[in-house]
């Protein structure tokens, strides 16, 4: 019996019928709609926003939220499979869906009022309202507690001042979930496009996530009504709770990027003849590709169990950190090795390896750098905080 080279341990057999259907649907969307255009979009530095209505129609925005708010009521493994297949296309497409679903719709659902949920979530699920998530600041990076953006109460409003950086979807967004220091601790606010004093500036000259919109957000005495404050959480646990949701999706996404690179290089090395034989017939190439398959298999088993823990309500943030660390490192190493096996052709975006390798430089950095996640695991092991 021949094995699936991209699923050597048959993790698909661990999936329910619904999970398989989700996987197949998103895989087909990626094959038919994303892959034909994503290379050009990356070259042009353009997010293919024409895909948003189709992404929404497939139910990929807020897919884990209840149906009453426009979500699909899908379980965590299904959401992970969505992330995996979208990132097989490009990290920028998965990032768009992750931000909309986990960093914008989730906090409104988890921390917002009933009125806020009804006002924003259904239109966000339809892709009519796009969100972004404002936590990272220019000086802050991995230390969100060192937040400078502030919100001061003034009558029935809050006055926001400060800035955020490296914000996915920033210039696309109709609303921004912004975290700011207040006299009562860090709180979240829904800042709407067009509010006086609020501006988004797209970041140019990127060599990574080129098919994604990345921006800086700026707040100059922006008046936000108290009705736009997320009242049901205070402190860092609010934004960190959102990041746990998004990081979970990121544990799955890089598997898709790694599979795309391995798939490409398997075909290429069988066709390219050097010294009288296919590159795939050499021991060095087979050792490299076997190691790629080993690491992909380990990552697949890791995320399926993580998803089951999440659905059971027993998932710990440290477990997410371990999987994000392992799977991002796995994918970026595989993308680089595949680029090498492609030879000179590997430096062009006619092949996907260099595009995924550059994208993964961002994925391994955002929502917790590799070092941060290593230290999270170290703290769990020792009981000592080394941050």
UniProtKB/TrEMBL annotation:
Pathway: Amino-acid metabolism; lysine degradation; Amino-acid metabolism; tryptophan metabolism
Record-linked InterPro entries: Acyl-CoA_DH_CS, Acyl-CoA_Oxase/DH_mid-dom, Acyl-CoA_Oxase/DH_mid-dom_sf, AcylCo_DH-like_C, AcylCo_DH/oxidase_C, AcylCoA_DH/ox_N, AcylCoA_DH/ox_N_sf, AcylCoA_DH/oxidase_NM_dom_sf
One Gene Ontology term from the biological process aspect of the record: fatty acid beta-oxidation using acyl-CoA dehydrogenase
PROSITE patterns in UniProt: ACYL_COA_DH_2 (PS00073)
Catalytic activity: glutaryl-CoA + oxidized [electron-transfer flavoprotein] + 2 H(+) = (2E)-butenoyl-CoA + reduced [electron-transfer flavoprotein] + CO2
Names of required cofactors: FAD
Keywords for the protein's UniProt record, in alphabetical order: FAD, Flavoprotein, Oxidoreductase, Transit peptide
Pfam families in alphabetical order: Acyl-CoA_dh_1, Acyl-CoA_dh_M, Acyl-CoA_dh_N
Protein family (similarity comment): Belongs to the acyl-CoA dehydrogenase family.
Name of the protein this chain belongs to: glutaryl-CoA dehydrogenase (ETF)
């Amino acid at each position: 019996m021949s094995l699936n080279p991209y699923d050597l341990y048959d993790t698909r057999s661990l999936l329910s019928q619904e999970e398989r259907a989700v996987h197949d649907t998103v895989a087909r969307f990626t094959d038919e709609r994303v892959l034909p255009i994503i290379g050009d979009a990356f070259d042009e530095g353009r997010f293919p926003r024409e895909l948003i209505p189709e992404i929404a129609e497939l139910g990929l925005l807020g897919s884990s939220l209840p149906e009453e708010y426009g979500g699909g009521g899908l379980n965590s493994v299904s959401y992970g499979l969505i992330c995996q297949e979208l990132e097989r296309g490009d990290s920028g497409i998965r990032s768009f869906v992750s931000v909309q679903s986990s960093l914008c719709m989730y906090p409104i659902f988890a921390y917002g009022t009933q009125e806020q949920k009804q006002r924003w979530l259904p239109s966000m699920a339809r892709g009519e309202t796009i969100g972004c998530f404002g936590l990272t600041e220019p000086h802050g990076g991995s230390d969100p507690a060192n937040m400078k953006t502030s919100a001061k109460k003034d009558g029935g409003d809050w006055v926001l001042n400060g800035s955020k950086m490296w914000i996915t979807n920033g210039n696309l967004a109709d609303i921004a979930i912004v975290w700011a220091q207040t006299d009562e601790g860090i709180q979240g606010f829904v800042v709407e496009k067009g509010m006086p004093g609020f501006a988004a500036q797209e970041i140019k000259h990127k060599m990574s996530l080129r098919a994604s919109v990345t921006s800086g957000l700026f707040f100059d005495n922006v008046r936000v009504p108290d009705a736009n404050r997320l009242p049901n959480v205070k402190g860092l646990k609010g934004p960190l709770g959102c990041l746990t949701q998004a990081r979970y999706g990121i544990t799955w996404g890089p598997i898709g990027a790694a599979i795309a690179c391995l798939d490409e290089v398997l075909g290429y090395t069988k066709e390219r003849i050097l010294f009288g034989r296919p590159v795939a017939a050499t021991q060095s190439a087979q050792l490299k590709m076997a190691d790629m398959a080993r690491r992909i298999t380990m990552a697949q088993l890791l995320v399926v169990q993580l998803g089951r823990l999440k659905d059971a309500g027993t998932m710990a943030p440290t477990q997410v950190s371990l999987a994000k660390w392992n799977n991002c490192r796995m994918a970026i190493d595989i993308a680089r090795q595949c680029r090498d096996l492609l030879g000179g052709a590997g430096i062009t975006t006619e092949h996907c390896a260099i595009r995924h390798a550059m994208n993964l430089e961002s994925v391994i950095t955002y929502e917790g750098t590799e070092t941060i996640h290593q230290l999270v695991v170290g703290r769990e092991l020792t009981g000592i905080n080394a941050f």
